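If your schedule permits, I should be very grateful for your opinion on a structural question. I would ask you to consider whether the tokens describe a fold that such a sequence might reasonably adopt. Thank you for your consideration; the sequence and its tokens are set out here.
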Amino acid sequence: MEGYKLTVRFYSPPVFYDPPILDALVHYALEKKLGQNISRCAYLMPQRVRGPRPGVDGVREMYKLIRYWEGGIFLSTALQFDAHPEFLDSWKKRFESKYSRLADFGKARRRINTASGSYRSYNMPLPAHAIRIGWWLFIGDGPAVLNLLEQYIPAVGKKRSEGFGHINDYVLEPKALAPRDVMALRPIPKEYADKIGLAGNERIMAWRPPYWSRGNQTLCVVPS
């Protein structure tokens, strides 16, 4: 496996609190790819019924695409970018009138009040980033990663369905990288950071995909 720089050009500003990590996108893309040929019912069956799912939360192919270091830390960085304006955008949270049949009105008139009460519309603030170009560094199978992202990841960050974080194109180029170069630009568990002498901010967060899993949360060293 070789080192690569994967550059991305954004069509619209991405929304995120923590910069997205490349292995999270690869894991998500693989889940989408692997889920195409099985029914949703089979995919959601309990593990005791469908059997164990080996690999990274059931995705063995992750090991073929991105090299991993001691403890299972994938050698891919968080999104890197130059200094840029950050601004507060918003998304309108409103009641969809087509679902009014699901609301319990009792004996009252069937009317949705979106000005006050539980169905009130409001603006949800979003931290948007005016990034034109960003990039990830990683060690792995570059062409395979590029092909997977081009097929399944047209946007990154939050509220992608609302138009945020859409991508114009990806550009892959070889780059000489050592494992330490990559791990200095991503969160890693503090015990491993201490071993290789990496310093940074310390916080509780996930360090490997799937990043929503509570089992992957621990005290990490995060790039400052």
